[in-house]
TrEMBL record:
Biological source species: Massilia oculi
Protein name per the record: Type III pantothenate kinase
Cofactor binding annotation: A monovalent cation. Ammonium or potassium.
UniProt keyword annotations, A-Z: ATP-binding, Coenzyme A biosynthesis, Cytoplasm, Kinase, Nucleotide-binding, Potassium, Transferase
Top-level taxonomy: Bacteria, Pseudomonadati, Pseudomonadota, Betaproteobacteria, Burkholderiales
Cofactor(s) the record lists: NH4(+); K(+)
UniProt keyword annotation of Transmembrane present: no
Function: Catalyzes the phosphorylation of pantothenate (Pan), the first step in CoA biosynthesis.
Length: 247
C-alpha cells in the first residue's frame, strides 16, 4: 500500500493506493486544512502503508509536521522536480526550481492524456497553467493568483467592492457588483487557460484543483476535469519503470 500526499498552501490532499493500481484508482482519499492534519494522519496509520511519496510546496514547517505524523516504518520519498521522471523531461531553465506540484501534475496529465500536446491547469490558491508536448517535454507555463485570491485582492484594495466567494458562473456582463466581480475573476482564469491552449495548439486540456468546478464551466475549449491531478502524477511516478534523472 502506498500513501500519496500533496501538501499545498491551503490544504493537504492524500490518497491510499495499491501498488498495481491505475493512476487515479485509490482505496481512499481526502483533503484537510493544515490545522486538521492530525485527522488525516489517523487514517494513514490505520491503512498499513509501507511507502509514502510526498509533494510539499508549503514550506519546511509543514514538511516537519507531515514527517512527524507519518506512520513509523514507512519508506518516505519527498518528491522533487528533476531533469526527467516517468518519461517527462523538464524543460524549465533551472529544472530544480520548478514547483514539485507542477511537475507531478504534468506527469499526471500525461498519464490521463498520453501522446498529446496538452495543457494542465491546476486551480488552487494560485492557478498554474503548464504546457507539455506529445513527446514528453514540460515546456513551461504561467502562474497567476487563484480565483479566491483575485476576488480577495479587489475587496482588500478597493474602498467599495465587497468580498465575493467563488460561485456558479453568472452572466458575462453582471448587472450587479457581486456578479460583475465573479464574472471578471472567472473570465480572467478561463482566459489564461484558453490562451495557453491556443498558443500551444493543445489537443487536450486537463483542469484540476479546488476551484476547477467554478472555472471549468467558463471555458470555451474542450477540457477534462480531473480530481487531484498532483496525486495522480505522484502515483504514476511511483509506478513508472522510467526512473528519475538528476540534473
Amino acid at each position: 500500500m502506498m500513501l500519496l500526499i500533496d501538501a499545498g498552501n491551503t490544504r493537504v490532499k492524500w490518497a491510499l493506493a495499491d501498488a498495481a493500481a491505475t493512476p487515479g484508482q485509490w482505496r481512499s482519499h481526502g483533503a484537510v486544512l493544515h490545522a486538521q492534519l492530525g485527522e488525516a494522519a489517523a487514517e494513514w496509520a490505520a491503512a498499513g502503508a509501507t511507502r509514502a511519496l510526498v509533494s510539499n510546496v508549503a514550506g519546511p514547517q509543514l514538511a516537519a509536521r507531515i514527517a512527524h505524523l507519518l506512520p513509523s516504518g514507512v519508506e518516505v520519498e519527498w518528491f522533487a522536480s528533476t531533469c526527467e521522471r516517468a518519461g517527462l523531461r523538464n524543460g524549465y531553465r533551472e529544472p530544480g526550481r520548478l514547483g514539485c506540484d507542477r511537475f507531478a501534475a504534468a506527469i499526471g496529465a500525461r498519464a490521463l492524456a498520453p501522446g498529446q500536446d496538452l495543457i494542465v491547469a491546476t486551480c488552487g490558491t494560485a492557478t498554474t497553467v503548464d504546457a507539455v508536448t506529445a513527446d514528453g517535454l514540460f515546456v513551461g507555463g504561467m502562474i497567476l493568483p487563484g480565483l479566491a485570491l483575485m476576488a480577495s485582492s479587489l475587496a482588500s484594495n478597493t474602498a467599495q467592492l465587497p468580498q465575493v466567494a467563488p460561485g456558479a458562473l453568472p452572466a458575462l456582463f453582471g448587472d450587479n457588483t457581486h456578479d460583475a466581480i465573479l464574472s471578471g475573476v472567472l473570465s480572467a482564469q478561463a482566459g489564461a487557460i484558453e490562451r495557453a491552449v491556443a498558443g500551444h495548439r493543445a489537443s487536450a486540456c486537463i483542469v484540476s484543483g479546488g476551484a476547477a468546478p467554478y472555472i471549468a464551466p467558463a471555458l470555451k475549449v474542450a477540457h477534462q476535469v480531473a480530481d487531484n491531478i498532483v496525486l495522480v502524477g505522484l502515483q504514476a511516478a511511483a509506478a513508472s519503470t522510467k526512473g528519475e534523472t538528476a540534473c
